[in-house]
Every structure is written in C-alpha cells, then in structure tokens.
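Hi both,

Apologies for the delay on this - the queue was longer than expected. I finally got the zinc ion-bound model through. Below you'll find the protein sequence and the ligand SMILES exactly as submitted, and right after that the structure tokens for the full complex including the ligand.
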Amino acid sequence: MIKSEETNSYEVIRSKRKTSAIQVKKDGGVVVRCPLWMTDREIRRFVAEHREWIARHQREVLERLEKRTVYTKEQVKEFRQHARWMLAQKTWLWAQKMQVTYGKLTIRQQATRWGSCSAKGNLNFNWKLVLVPQDLVDYVVVHELAHRREMNHSPKFWKIVEEQLPDYRERRRRLREYETEIEIAEE
Ligand SMILES: [Zn+2]
C-alpha cells in the first residue's frame, strides 16, 4: 500500500497491483484499489463506470444497518445477568453429559466471538447469547466444552461436537446470521 487519499465520495489506494477493484465497506464507504500508474482521471472514470454496482452495494449496507437492533445500557445490564445464569446452567449440564471439567466462567462482550475456552479451561461467553435461540446457545456451549478435549478445530474436535449435536452444522450456519444483526449502544 503506497498512497491513500480521501476524496468526497471514495478512498483511493494505489499499490503495485495490475488491475483495479472497488470495494464497499461495512459502513458504506467506497474504496478504490488501483495500480500506481493510474491517473485521477482514469480512476474517476472507473468509478463512474461502476456507479450502479456501488449504489446497489451501498443500499444493501443501509438495509443491513437499519435491521440492526440497538440496546440501552440498562437492557444490557439485565441481559448480562440473565446470560450469567443461563450459561452457568447450560455449561454445568453439558459438562456432565460430555464428562469434561471447566474452570471459571465469565460473561463478557466480545465483538466477534460467541465464546472461547482458555488452555486452563476457563470459559468466556458473550452476553449476546441471550438474544439467540436456545438451541444455538447449546451449540456454543458444546463447542467450547469440546475444546476441553481438543484445543483445536481438527476433525477429531468436530467429531466430539457431532456426538452431542448431530445437526451442529445447521446450528452453526444459523448462528452466523445473528452476528451482524446484534449491536449494542456505546458504553
Ligand atoms: Zn472453537
């Protein structure tokens, strides 16, 4: 990446690439990546040629942002408490069934993860799990507990998950649909 400049409507990144490409970011911003030799005028033309494509993708971004749910601090506090209670129960039950142990259980707000498991067996869960269907929460719990036997995502790991939840692939796919929809207010 050599040069980056903001213009009114798009950002230009020139680099040693051979072809040009346009990207519409998650916030609707437009980025043009192009070769070093391309002039501003050529870039303008390139963008103009793709105006419809850009508009279509920006509309999609807008629709996605409108669908998002934003929660207040008070609501988040309640959700967190509920999450702690629900996940403590579920983790205990699944751990019995899977015959694994675990350490501390923490509820936090992770931007990108539903849960994680440390090498010591401490479990972290995202409070946003209270906002998704129960069967998907079960998947997250089983997934993290399966890491108590396999600290990786090897076929062996997935086999452990599948033993408990034969339809885990479907649950995993459905869980992904919630990832961009659930947002909270700034703290
Ligand atoms: Zn994992």
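Main takeaway for now: Residues 143, 147, 153 surround zinc ion (CB under 6 Å).

I'll put the files on the shared drive as well.

H.
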